[in-house]
Known about the structure:
Layout: E1 2-4, H1 16-52, H2 60-76, H3 79-104, H4 112-129, H5 135-164, H6 168-187, H7 213-221, H8 238-255, H9 257-267, H10 269-274, H11 279-303, H12 314-317, H13 320-330, H14 335-358, H15 364-379, H16 381-388, E2 401-403, E3 410-412, E4 426-428
Helix pairs in contact: 1-15, 2-3, 2-14, 3-8, 3-11, 3-13, 3-14, 4-5, 4-6, 4-11, 4-13, 5-6, 5-11, 8-9, 8-14, 9-11, 13-14, 13-15, 14-15
Amino acid sequence: xxxxxxxxxxxxxxxxxxxxxxxxxxxxxxxxxxxxxxxxxxxxxxxxxxxxxxxxxxxxxxxxxxxxxxxxxxxxxxxxxxxxxxxxxxxxxxxxxxxxxxxxxxxxxxxxxxxxxxxxxxxxxxxxxxxxxxxxxxxxxxxxxxxxxxxxxxxxxxxxxxxxxxxxxxxxxxxxxxxxxxxxxxxxxxxxxxxxxxxxxxxxxxxxxxxxxxxxxxxxxxxxxxxxxxxxxxxxxxxxxxxxxxxxxxxxxxxxxxxxxxxxxxxxxxxxxxxxxxxxxxxxxxxxxxxxxxxxxxxxxxxxxxxxxxxxxxxxxxxxxxxxxxxxxxxxxxxxxxxxxxxxxxxxxxxxxxxxxxxxxxxxxxxxxxxxxxxxxxxxxxxxxxxxxxxxxxxxxxxxxxxxxxxxxxxxxxxxxxxxxxxxxxxxxxxxxx
Length: 434
């Protein structure tokens, strides 16, 4: 049967109420799993506090409330605490983008920690070698060096995956340890190591560090205004770089052909290859781009805090690269999701000190909560609950569909098995995935 597919009439506009329901369903589907996972993790963390609290005579709910209150007040209770939290959030955003863009291509980038390490070391080596350069030249070169180093480190895993079939989880884990021990060797070797046998690098010169926002504020608005203490308000201008990186990530994924191709590869690699998408090249590029973002996480973490030294075994114990996995999953690999999840996870890390000192709760509770968030996201409890609910309580989720139109062509369609004529072609709308 020949069916002309050229559209002759403009489609009718959907009612506003239907459009609102569609938007509510879309964002509810996106926000439901991460919010539900965080709530379950907080409940499980409260149970841990109740079980492990030594004084059983005290009201357990009071202990839980005090613990969580001090945790979040220590993260966002004041401008000073917010500033400290943003210091942790900035590299976490970069590293989470690294993990998320690999997820979009169906790859599991466990190597953000190693890519962060080589990026920080490359920036440190440039900063300690060319100390006489002016800051307007030295800082961009250091950032570019970290981007290049991270891209090379991620590209190695991408090359092995694309052309040798090596699984990226195995190769990135092995590359992590090569990066950790390689950077430890450089840290302990001249001319970068500090004198008197201290296992750390020399301190970066002032022209190789990123200025704090408080210092920029004092320079611009210092006349007639009380100056801000740069020691109290530690966040530097790299937070703006991280926000720009989120916009760049969103643009790559949602508004470029390359982003569409990697989404197709992530959803169905065989279909992508059959459609003529260069799968191998895109896998290599995705891992290289992921490494570049992780390298920026290392350099901004190093350059943003004056007097910060790279120490031996520091990278193997730095949680940013592995926290990024939780952030990317919790944020559903979207730009706005990564931002919100970074603020949450970074806040938990920052507020754990106050929780320990004021509420006398072990800061490892934060690690438990973070692990539980990952567990509940992976467990996907919402589909299970949806299946066990009565039919009248189940929300109805429908995929976004569009009619495939081919101007001035006629397509021969097969008859349905039941003999009814097929009315048209409907395909999933990948372009509007975001």
